[in-house]
Amino acid sequence: MEKHSRSFCSFLQLNNIICGVNDSDGKIVLEKLLTLLKRHFPELDEKYTRNEIESRETLFPTMIAPGLAIPHARIPGLQTPLVAIACVPGGCDFGGTTPAKIIVLILTPIDDPNLHIQLLSALAKEFENPAVTEKLAQSAKPQELLNHFSCGLSKIPDYLTAADLMDEFPEVLQETDSILDAVKKFAVTGSEELPVVDNSGDLRGVLSLSDLLKYSLPEHLLWLEDLSPIYQLQPFSDMLKTADETKVADIMREEFIQAEVNDPAVKLAKIFLINKISQMIITDGDGKPVGMVTLKNFSAKLFWD
Question: Which of 95, 100, 213, 300 is placed for a possible disulfide with 69 were both Cys, Cβ 3.0 to 4.6 Å?
Answer without folding.
Answer: 100
